[in-house]
Specification:
alpha/beta, Rossmann fold, 12 strands, globular
Length: 244
């Protein structure tokens, strides 16, 4: 799920492989610089269509043409799209995740960084970025870079379907006022480390973009912006379509 280069450290992949091999309680521990550590059951990456949040189900119905599933995890979205007849390429930075997807029957799978030149050799009608997938861009600067880079991934009229969240609520005081350093980094930039059993991965950056920020960045990068849905957790689904 990180956008950095693959390494031998792969706690996410090893947890997914353990679950795939029958370890039903395999759990990743997620450490961040903004919240208490959280358990993330590997089972979540194997959810069926009706176990998915409504935002994800909506995103799947909005897919069209050839699909590139970025940060595909264990392939739950790719498998659902394949079952509907879509041609899908699933990409993840985690070698273990890629192995799991191959074993589960995802037809086209690759272990790539989101900027890997190999990805730009083909064009896609839909780039899918679910599970707060816009976060793959890492930082505000990274988001601007990715939105420009995605021009090389999209076919004419192509779309990005992505989810993200406004996490300003983490910075509310007891009176509901927002308290964060206006001179510091953007409040939606988070540092994460994943751990599975005794194996800890490298720290990586993840961005949660509030809707107005994403709209500004996307319009500056030449996209039309359409917010398709939101939930009560301040998470939203957005469609970014290349103009022209």
């Amino acid at each position: 799920m990180s956008s950095s280069s693959p390494t031998s450290q792969d706690p996410l992949g090893h947890a997914l492989l353990a679950y795939q091999r029958g370890k039903q309680n395999a759990t990743i521990t997620v450490h961040s610089n903004v919240a208490e550590e959280e358990p993330l059951p590997a089972a979540y990456f194997f959810r069926s269509l009706w176990e998915m949040p409504e935002l994800e189900r909506t995103a799947l119905t909005e897919c069209r043409g050839r699909v590139l599933d970025l940060g595909a995890g264990a392939g739950c979205h790719s498998l659902e799209l394949q079952s509907r007849g879509f041609e899908v390429k699933a990409v993840d930075i985690s070698p273990g995740a890629v192995q799991v997807m191959q074993e589960r029957g995802v037809g086209q799978v690759a272990c790539h960084d989101i900027y890997d030149p190999a990805l730009t050799k083909e064009k896609y009608d839909t780039v899918l970025m679910l599970m707060n997938g816009i976060g793959l861009a890492g930082t505000l600067e990274g988001l601007e870079r990715f939105l420009q880079h995605a021009h090389q991934l999209l076919a004419p009229g192509g779309q990005i379907l992505a989810t993200s969240s406004d996490i300003s609520y983490l910075y509310e005081d007891e009176d509901g006022a927002l308290v964060f350093d206006l001179n510091g980094p953007y409040y939606g930039e988070v540092e994460y480390t994943m751990q599975y059993e005794e194996e800890a991965g490298a720290t990586f950056h993840w961005i949660f973009a509030d809707p107005s920020l994403l709209q500004d960045c996307a319009e500056a990068a030449g996209y039309q912006v359409e917010f398709l849905d939101e939930d009560d957790q301040q998470q939203y689904l957005v469609r970014l379509t290349l103009k022209g």
